[in-house]
Design goal:
Mean pLDDT: 89
Structural class: alpha+beta
Low-confidence stretches: none
Shape: globular
Radius of gyration: 15 Å
Organism: Marinomonas rhodophyticola
Distance between the termini: 10 Å
Oligomer: single chain
Number of strands: 6
Protein name: Energy transducer TonB
Order of helices and strands: EEEEEEHH
């Protein structure tokens, strides 16, 4: 199972929702299963959450489940898993877009002005091969 660290400069809106049934998860799943994120508040293991990401896609809304939560010096590090194929696939695509936007912003801070397409081309060349595959 692989989780991708969501960039901190693209804030997620995470809302608790009524626990919803998810299919049983095999601990031995391979490939992309979710994201990690740093929040200011803790979330209980197993709780269902709804995630939105306005900066990348105002229509993006997906449900997941808290896989773990650990208190660290900079906040609460959480992992959110997406048990269904559809949600996992959707989140993986949005996460790639988030990583590209984060890369573009880092380049800007370093004095390089890249449009989104230029940033995408560079990110794909440098990082796409190491991005966890979707293998559910």
């Amino acid at each position: 199972m692989e989780f991708v660290a969501h960039p901190r400069d693209l804030p997620l809106e995470i809302t608790l929702i009524e626990d919803q049934p998810f299919p049983p998860i095999c601990e031995e799943r391979a490939g992309f299963v979710g994201i990690t994120y740093v929040t200011l508040r803790p979330f209980d293991y197993g709780r269902s959450v709804r995630i939105t990401l306005e900066e990348i896609d105002p229509n993006f809304c997906v449900s997941g489940r808290i896989a773990w939560c650990r208190q660290e010096a900079d906040g609460y590090h959480i992992a959110i898993e997406f048990p269904t194929k559809e949600e996992c696939y959707c989140v993986r695509m949005i996460e790639q877009l988030s990583q590209i936007e984060h890369y573009r912003r880092q380049a800007k801070m370093a004095g390089r002005r890249l449009n989104y397409n230029e940033a995408a081309a560079e990110w794909i060349q440098k990082f796409a091969a190491s991005f966890p595959a979707f293998t559910i």
